[in-house]
Amino acid sequence: MATIQNILIVAQDGRLQYEALLFAASLRHFPENRALRLVVAEPQPGPLWADDPRISRPAIRRELRALGADIVPLHSKAFGARYPQGNKLEALALLPKGEPFAFFDTDTLITGPISDVVAGPPTASQLVEPTWPREPLYGPSLADIWGALYDRFGLDMAPTLDTRFGADDWRRYMYFNAGWFTGTCPRCMGARLLDYAAQIERDPPPDLATQTLFPWLDQIALPLAIAAEGGGRRDTGLDGPKSLHYRALPEVYAYGSDHAVGVLETVTRAPHLWDIFNQHVAFRRMIFKENGPVLRQIMVGRPKPLTYWARRKAIMDAGHWVR
């Protein structure tokens, strides 16, 4: 069976450029991943950006290239600074047509070989929380809201339902975390995602009248595009042993496996990289000032909170939140 060939991330000035370097270093840490093509989409200055969004640290640019990354300009036409999460949708057009791909948010640590991820029907991360939609007290129901979206784009919702759960349970409806997703043709999927997102923003179905679209727009469009491309829920290993979507470095220490912590510390302490990572406050405090191991000791044995905001509060209460 065919496997993923191209890996895509979006990197820009600020925190994301350091996360991008960590992603690339952890990807190449595993020899099996060294043949994968890594494309780093770099937003360019333009009317949708008030400031220059490009990678500002020459050392990071140099090391990304040394790790085999192709840094490709991304000229934002749809979202830009007003909705940075949406830039991933445009970035898909930078990948070769018809070649299997995986997109990752930069706040992802690769923790194993991903060169063997099967390029089957499109799928995405199932490590998701019930962030959207919020069911109004007097309706419409979850079934009505999702049904209206599937109807808008001429899609059949029935095959996407997880019938283990009832109609009032959010898990019944296909909803993904957009931290990673895969597909067989990035240009087809990117065009579909952009079209769906634009239509939902510009003219949402009446059943969405009570819903907030931002910052969830990419995650609203994603299951619809995956369904349209013939995909769905599928186990790739990217939600488990192969990668960790950490969102903020303290989460790796608080809730990650010993293996994930080991990968993080090994790649960031590499002689040619540690001084770069040390220049960002989160890396400096958690790794080089060793607050991470202290946090890990505090959190040992505590249950992992179910939501990001609860995990963040637990880490803040322990005095070690930084991003």
Provide a descriptive summary of the structure in words:
With 323 residues, this protein is an alpha/beta fold. The chain has 2 domains: 178 residues, Spore Coat Polysaccharide Biosynthesis Protein SpsA, Chain A, CATH 3.90.550; 71 residues, no CATH class. 37% of the residues lie in helices and 12% in strands. The protein is built from 12 helices and 8 strands. The strands form 2 sheets. Strands 3-2-1-4-7-6 form a 6-stranded mixed β-sheet. A two-stranded antiparallel ribbon has the order 5-8. Strand 2, helix 2 and strand 3 form a beta-alpha-beta unit. The chain is globular, with a radius of gyration of 20 Å. It starts with 5 loop residues before the first strand and ends in a 6-residue tail after the last helix. This is Glycosyl transferase family 8.
N-to-C CA distance: 39 Å
The structure class reads alpha/beta
- Kindly estimate the percentage of residues that lie in beta strands according to DSSP: 5-15%
The number of distinct helices, counting runs of at least 4 residues, comes to 12
Helix-strand sequence: EHEHEHEEEHEHHEHHHHHH
The backbone outline, from C-alpha atoms, is globular
Strand order of the largest sheet: 3-2-1-4-7-6
Mean model confidence by pLDDT: 96
Q: Please identify the top-level CATH class of the largest domain.
A: Alpha Beta
Unreliably modeled segments: none
Largest sheet: 6 strands, mixed
Helical percentage: 25-40%
Protein name: Glycosyl transferase family 8
